[in-house]
Amino acid sequence: MRERSLPARGRNAPVRWLAAVALAFGTAALPACSQPPSGVDSRTVRYNGLDYHVVRIDLRTQRLGLYWRDPGNDQPFSSIDALKAWGESDGRHLLFAANAGIYDHKGAPLGLYVENGKTLVPLNTVHGDPRAGNFSLQPNGVFAIDANGQASVMTTRAFHAARPRVRWATQSGPMLVIGGQLNAQFLADSNSLKWRSGVCAVTPHQVVFAISEAPVNFHTFGELFLKRLGCDNALYLDGTISQMYVDGQGYFGAPGFMVKPYAGMFAVFGKRR
User: Fold this and answer.
1) DSSP 3-state of 143
2) Which of 60, 133, 169, 219 is the most exposed place for a label (fewest CB within 10 A)?
3) End-to-end CA distance of the chain
4) pLDDT more than 90, % of the chain
5) Is 6's pLDDT higher than 90?
6) Closest Cα partner for 142 from 178, 116, 106, 194?
7) Radius of gyration for the chain, computed over Cα atoms and rounded to the nearest angstrom
8) Beta strands 234-239 and 64-67: pairing type?
9) What does the angle CA 151 – CA 43 – CA 95 come to, to the nearest 5 degrees?
10) Would you tell me how many other CB atoms lie within 10 Å of the CB of residue 28?
11) Where are the domains of the chain?
């Protein structure tokens, strides 16, 4: 969804992701964690006085995909609950889901969207007006999983130059972390506070999603990925309406009354119990 925001400036230094991942996911370091039988690593992480829900997906054991429309009738799923019901009807149980990026007024992804190897929306290289929404804050970027099951996050410019062949991809913006540096457009004292969600790949097989449990600005949210989760590159997904679902634990993120219909959604399914 498009939202207005206050762009800002800041700086940071790179960190070594191995140490940060150990800090973020080590059992002794976390005040609360839960891992349901599904195997989805789901926990609450506290950083700089705020709580975030963090889910780690291991692509070697979990199949992370993108879902927008019901293949039976070509209608948008629009909600995580509808996606869950569709999975159950197909003999699959929803283990994890999250909205997958910013979309336009027609309910379509605003940038690149690739689902199971098929490009449904092409890469968007138009900068646009940053006052019109976060997607236009530069640089924006792409989260993708290639045919070998390896995940990456890169800027739109880098993705356009590389032209990788991908199986799943979503474009959003802005980038939160670029090459081990916090996005230089962020200000530490920005008053643009919203529920926010994002994603990174700490390794080609380890994808990390995070969502704030209270309104937060871009600077603080970006620092979570850089300093706490050990991400060299991280992408903002959306704010205000963002939610994350984990089997056996329910929903995290924005209050339910703020949620509106989604376009693409990330999901991990397991066998129906």
Assistant:
1) strand
2) 60
3) 34
4) 72
5) no
6) 178
7) 17
8) unpaired
9) 60
10) 6
11) 17-271
